[in-house]
Amino acid sequence: MNKIQIEDREFEILIENDNICKRTRLIGIQINLDYENRCPLFIGVLNGSFMFMGDLLKEITVSCEVAFIQVSSYSGAKSSGKVKEILGLPDDIHNRDIIIVEDIVDTGLTLSHILKELYKQKPASVKVCSLLLKPAALKEPLEELEYVGFELANDFVVGYGLDYNGLGRNLNDIYRTKTVVPSAS
Ligand SMILES: O=P(O)(O)OC[C@H]1O[C@H](OP(=O)(O)OP(=O)(O)O)[C@H](O)[C@@H]1O
Ligand code: HPA
């Protein structure tokens, strides 16, 4: 399936599942080496990370724990801007080695917000593992970004957890549309 249609947009194949699996295996090997004799806490950012998190964790052989958070955006009652709230953040991460797992880092704003909240609890270390990264869209450098699967151009992508208007998360492969559209959910 090289081309797919989701609602009003046509997408073309960008990364096949085979390549995602191979890259994920390599990232897993690296994490196992880096965290030997430690017990990292993997924190997946929902919804988009659910597939990558599942496949990545199958490659992890060091002792570890797993949690999920969700970042919801809503308009604050008193402010005109968007307020981000983090749901499900564990409250016992003091002195823990944290690995945040994302499907994509685009502008990096979501991650910056998560990192700010995490550091309040003084974890021992924080690294980020993201399947996808759009370097040209990043608003500021993120030194915690240690493990990246694939670097992309500024095209909008769907599949393997990523959505367009809530659709396409179940696709095995990753697809892109040339037209740049705003973040869809
Ligand atoms: O780097 P940024 O520009 O902040 O974008 C990246 C974020 O956007 C997506 O989440 P989204 O808010 O669309 O929610 P979802 O995971 O439920 O799709 C993605 O899963 C990242 O969390
Ligand atoms: O390219 C993207 N696709 C889906 N969700 C996203 N969230 C940020 N960037 C993207």
Automatic annotation (TrEMBL):
Name the domain of life this protein comes from.
Answer: Bacteria
Cofactors named for this entry:
Mg(2+)
List, in alphabetical order, the GO biological process terms annotated in this UniProt record. GMP salvage; guanine salvage; hypoxanthine metabolic process; IMP salvage; purine ribonucleoside salvage
| Record-linked Gene3D superfamilies | 3.40.50.2020
Per the UniProt record, the source organism is: Pedobacter psychroterrae
Provide the E.C. number(s) assigned to this enzyme.
Answer: 2.4.2.8
Pathway noted in the entry: Purine metabolism; IMP biosynthesis via salvage pathway; IMP from hypoxanthine: step 1/1
**Which residue windows are coiled coil?**
none
Q: What class of enzyme is it?
A: transferase
Q: Where in the cell is it found?
A: Cytoplasm
The reaction(s) annotated as catalysed by this protein in its Swiss-Prot or TrEMBL entry are: IMP + diphosphate = hypoxanthine + 5-phospho-alpha-D-ribose 1-diphosphate; GMP + diphosphate = guanine + 5-phospho-alpha-D-ribose 1-diphosphate
The GO terms this record gives for MF are: guanine phosphoribosyltransferase activity; hypoxanthine phosphoribosyltransferase activity; magnesium ion binding; nucleotide binding
GO CC terms on record?
cytosol
**Where primarily located?**
cytoplasm
Family, per the entry? Belongs to the purine/pyrimidine phosphoribosyltransferase family.
Protein's name in the database: Hypoxanthine phosphoribosyltransferase
Pfam families found in the cross-reference section? Pribosyltran
- Give the InterPro entries listed for this entry: HGPRT, Hxn_phspho_trans, PRTase-like, PRTase_dom
Assigned keywords, A-Z:
Cytoplasm, Glycosyltransferase, Magnesium, Metal-binding, Nucleotide-binding, Purine salvage, Transferase
What residue stretches are annotated with the Phosphoribosyltransferase domain?
20-164
